[in-house]
Write a structure and sequence with these properties.
The chain has 15 helices and twelve strands. It is an alpha+beta fold and about 425 residues long. This is Cytochrome P450.
């Protein structure tokens, strides 16, 4: 059980509140006494925190009253930014639907099923390489490697370029952590990059690299996602440069960071719950429910934002047009009304209708089936060894209220 304490006057959900772990006590307090709560933010005007599972679902379904087009995270956008930085993530139908259709078939259940063979080959190689070391950083040397190599294969990116894509993605997703990037979102220096995603210079490197790939795929088409983007026909025209740039960057960050963090949090949870490792080793049929519990437990993206389009009332609070609304997936995934004993890590939990991929609405995660496949294969390949894993130090968490990130997690593999 979580201890519900504290005052609503002292609610802090800024990035620094997540350095030592998710402030679950704060979320539990909000769910109980203020499920729609006006929350101060150090980066500017405040926002409404939505913390109960069913309220989050209702907002996700209602894109007509809660728009994505003014940004998906807390940053305020002006008119220029809303044009230059808008990706599929920051669009409503019908534009969102048109762009999503370009690549949706490559991430369908049928397509993803065809990827299992090479996902397993990649995973087996990484398992073999890392377990020889006996002690290593699980984030950098294991979890970061698999999703990006899978991404490279599906997208048509040269495998030798995966390391720089990982580095750029880290800077972008860690844009509020000075230990990850030299240009944080709140710094004066970031003003130079205000028209680029995450207000970060790494976006320029991703754009330049993506444009090089686009030219290459135009001249030498292949059966891959990047060729589809390069040759896409959207409403009778090709993708504009800014559309291609932002979509390529979105696929890199979303396709890598979230799966990596789910794997990291899953291994940490199993190390801390050895009884659950034994359950999996004794009953392989639990692996599918274990994947869903890992996704619920990890919640790699802590929140997504919407903006109110017309005045609406929710739990007695008047939300005005233009107000920011933050959907705390991490809170919904611990909602006591939905998940019995939500702070217990249970590989056999069923049902487990978590919010990690959005669950409902037009923005349901495009890569959900691929992420599930990767996580399942990783833990199937790790399962014979997991009982030998130990933490070799305290995991270092990212300073972010957007990404549930672990930057460094030393592990050691002991002998039987």
């Amino acid at each position: 059980m979580i201890n519900i304490s504290g005052s609503l006057d002292n609610v802090n959900l800024d990035d620094d509140a997540f350095v030592d772990g998710v402030p679950h006590e704060t979320f539990a307090l909000l769910r109980q006494v203020s499920p729609v709560h006006w929350t101060r933010w150090k980066g500017g005007d405040g926002y409404w925190s939505i913390t109960r599972y069913n309220d989050i679902l209702n907002v996700l379904k209602d894109w007509k009253r809660f728009t994505s087009e003014r940004g998906a995270n807390l940053e305020n956008w002006d008119g220029d930014q809303s044009i230059a930085r808008r990706s599929m993530l920051e669009m409503d139908p019908p534009r969102h639907t048109s762009l999503r259709k370009i690549v949706s078939m490559d991430f369908s259940p049928r397509a993803v099923a065809r990827y299992e063979s090479f996902v397993r080959d990649i995973t087996k190689t990484i398992v073999e390489q890392t377990l020889k070391k006996r002690e290593f950083d699980f984030v950098d040397q294991f979890a970061a490697q698999i999703p990006m190599r899978v991404f490279a294969r599906i997208m048509g990116v040269p495998e030798e370029d995966t390391e720089k894509l990982i580095a750029w993605g880290d800077e972008l997703m860690g844009n509020t952590d000075p230990e990850v990037t030299e240009v944080t979102m709140y710094s004066e220096e970031s003003e130079k990059y205000r028209l680029y995603p995450f207000r970060n210079p790494a976006a320029l490197k991703v754009f330049e690299y993506g444009r090089w790939l686009r030219r290459h795929k135009w001249d030498e088409p292949r059966q891959d996602v990047l060729t589809k983007l390069a040759h896409a026909d959207v409403e009778g025209r090709s993708l504009m440069d800014w559309e291609f740039d932002n979509m390529f960057l979105l696929l890199i960050t979303a396709g890598h960071e979230t799966t990596r963090q789910a794997i990291v949090h899953g291994v940490e949870a199993l190390i801390r719950h050895p009884d659950q490792i034994r359950r999996l080793q004794n009953d392989a049929s639990l692996m599918q429910t274990a994947v869903e519990e890992i996704l619920r437990w990890a919640t790699p993206i802590l929140h997504f934002r919407r903006t109110v389009k017309e005045d609406v009332e929710l739990h007695g609070k008047k939300l005005r047009a233009g107000d920011k609304v933050v959907l705390w997936f991490i809170s919904g995934n611990r909602d006591e009304e939905i998940f019995p004993d939500p702070f217990y890590f249970d590989v056999g939990r069923a049902p487990n209708e978590h919010l990690t991929f959005g669950k409902v609405g037009v923005h349901y995660c495009l890569g959900a089936y691929l992420a599930r496949l990767e996580i399942r294969v990783v833990f199937e390949e790790l399962l014979p060894y997991l009982h030998r894993f130990e933490l070799a130090g305290k995991p270092v968490r990212m300073r972010s209220n957007f990404t549930h990130g672990i930057r460094f997690m030393p592990v050691k593999v002991v002998t039987d």
